[in-house]
Amino acid sequence: MILTDSQIKATYRAGDIVIDPFDENQVQAASYDLRVGAQGATTSTKKLVNIKEQGYLLLNPGDFGILTVFEEIKLGPQYAGRFGLRSKYARKGLIATTGPQIDPGYRGRLIVGITNLTPRAVSLPYKDDFVSVEFHRLEEPSTSPYDGPYQGKLELGPEEIETITENEGMALSEVLTTLRSLTQDVHLLSGEVKSLSKIIPAIIGIGMAVIGVIVALK
Questions:
Q1: pTM for the complete prediction?
Q2: How crowded is residue 191: how many other Cβ atoms within 10 Å of its Cβ?
Q3: pLDDT at 169
Q4: What would the DSSP string read from start to end of 101-120?
């Protein structure tokens, strides 16, 4: 059963779903909007970005990035969540590459992967709504609540940063940059070839004239 807005508020008040900080303005008809958190990293920056200080996380064309959500979540054993990117960012050409399920018993801050598939840079402002979560009440509590590697995780760790900074080969953003550079070089070379195509006939004409003069002198 997907919880409605009033059920989300009631379940929060009962302590079965914890969202910290909780803001009723983030509650939608049947979901809760989570915001951009304080940490992120992208394949173009290749380092940890303090989104809170910078004000936003910038995803360049072709960039893959990871970021934490602002809120900390805790689910009781009878609740699960499913989350996805908000449509306002999906319409800009971003896709979320994480999830979509939050298991019963999970606690921590979600770490979300984002890819920019567009030819333009897209920014994710700090504390802006960017993913929505549906909460589901299960028919009975889970007998094996989540206890995986992300349990209790509140910030990006070395393993997440390494996936961004130490990957082998070229990232998609670097490939696109290289292709744009090659395109510019091709256009430049094409212009030079066109210029030569105009000059060469003149050079040939002068050469023929010189040869004609030499022959005449003989």
A1: 0.76
A2: 10
A3: 44
A4: EE-TT-EE--EEEEEE-SSS
Tokens (6 digits) for 189: 């070379």
- The three-state secondary structure class of 144 is coil
Neighbouring-strand partners of residue 75: 17
In contact, 40 and 155? CB cutoff 8 Å: no
Tens of pLDDT, residues 195-212? 656 676 766 666 666 566
- Dihedral class, residue 151 (left if φ above 0, else alpha if ψ from -120 to 50, else beta): beta
Specify the amino acid at residue 67.
Answer: L
Where does the pLDDT of residue 179 fall: very low under 50, low under 70, confident under 90, or very high at 90 and above? Answer: very low
How deeply is 124 buried, as exposed, middle or buried, from its count of CB atoms within 10 A (0-12, 13-18, 19+)?
buried
Contact 112, 99 (CB under 8 A): yes
Cα–Cα distance for residue pair 107/159, rounded to 1 Å: 19
Q: How far apart are CA 127 and CA 141, in angstroms?
A: 32
The CA distance from 34 to 130, in Å, is 6
